[in-house]
């Protein structure tokens, strides 16, 4: 069986939920405390044994390319001032095989994945969405590593799911599981995009990590634009599921959605509470704030 060595990071979306911040800046460069979200993804890929990464980018994404490139002026400056720790942080970002492809028009996630076909070739690969972070404080397993381990056992395309509160199903793609073939691994009848809670076939929501066999490309070639007039990856997965087994792997670790304002703030707080330079001050601040907000709520109720 071929090993999973390559990853696609689709990053050509417009990031409209963060306007005006994303008017000129790539959404993937928004930091969590001091690290751009895309760097967390790249680190997860490396921890999972991925050797080559391709970022599918669009307009306003130059900052991503620059972030993973060397910056001799900055490096010389840090070196001359003996700022060794900072120099190490800067140099680490270039120690990686990363490539960039342009998606000429934002025609949807499925189209972004298809754009990377020539880079992937005839191999299994992973897709990692930049909004979705997991295991940011390193307490568990990177999700991508779990998916690759699962692929090594089944040889089948597998996507990551997570249990969400039933009332939240309308925010996600949700799986209709037919059987739990082993703990946390499901056979799937079909995938339903953002179902109303009363129609949701399960509480298992698709989160942004996938491992695919290369046959997904042929399916994507023939997938017509769907919801929002975009080529939907979920539509292609439903089609693939008719000719090949597609599994869902349940992730039980920490997961953060940084693609919306509240999720991004929450991730900053969780990461900040573990970051050596911010954790003590932030903890004290949150405690003080909690007391203040509780007093405000109490006063409102009177
Ligand atoms: P989103 O649905 O989160 O869209 O895309 P978005 O444009 O990034 O953000 P909002 O909703 O406008 O705020 C899911 C993933 O698919 C990528 C995005 O970059 C994101 O990682 N994507 C989406 C593409 O690469 N190309 C597309 O045409 C659409």
From TrEMBL:
<feature type="domain" description="Nucleotidyl transferase">
    <location>
        <begin position="6"/>
        <end position="263"/>
    </location>
</feature>
<comment type="pathway">
    <text>Carbohydrate metabolism; nucleotide-sugar metabolism.</text>
</comment>
<keyword id="KW-0548">Nucleotidyltransferase</keyword>
<dbReference type="GO" id="GO:0006011">
    <property type="term" value="P:UDP-alpha-D-glucose metabolic process"/>
</dbReference>
<dbReference type="InterPro" id="IPR029044">
    <property type="entry name" value="Nucleotide-diphossugar_trans"/>
</dbReference>
<keyword id="KW-0808">Transferase</keyword>
<dbReference type="InterPro" id="IPR005771">
    <property type="entry name" value="GalU_uridylyltTrfase_bac/arc"/>
</dbReference>
<comment type="similarity">
    <text>Belongs to the UDPGP type 2 family.</text>
</comment>
<dbReference type="GO" id="GO:0003983">
    <property type="term" value="F:UTP:glucose-1-phosphate uridylyltransferase activity"/>
</dbReference>
<dbReference type="Pfam" id="PF00483">
    <property type="entry name" value="NTP_transferase"/>
</dbReference>
<protein>
    <recommendedName>
        <fullName>UTP--glucose-1-phosphate uridylyltransferase</fullName>
        <ecNumber>2.7.7.9</ecNumber>
    </recommendedName>
</protein>
<dbReference type="InterPro" id="IPR005835">
    <property type="entry name" value="NTP_transferase_dom"/>
</dbReference>
